[in-house]
Amino acid sequence: MTRDKESSVDFLVEKLNLKKVNLMKLDIEGEELNALMGSIKTIKKFKPKIALEIHSKELRNKIVNFLKRYGYKLLFEKEKGNMDFICVILKVRTHR
Question: What is the pTM of this model?
Answer without folding.
Answer: 0.80
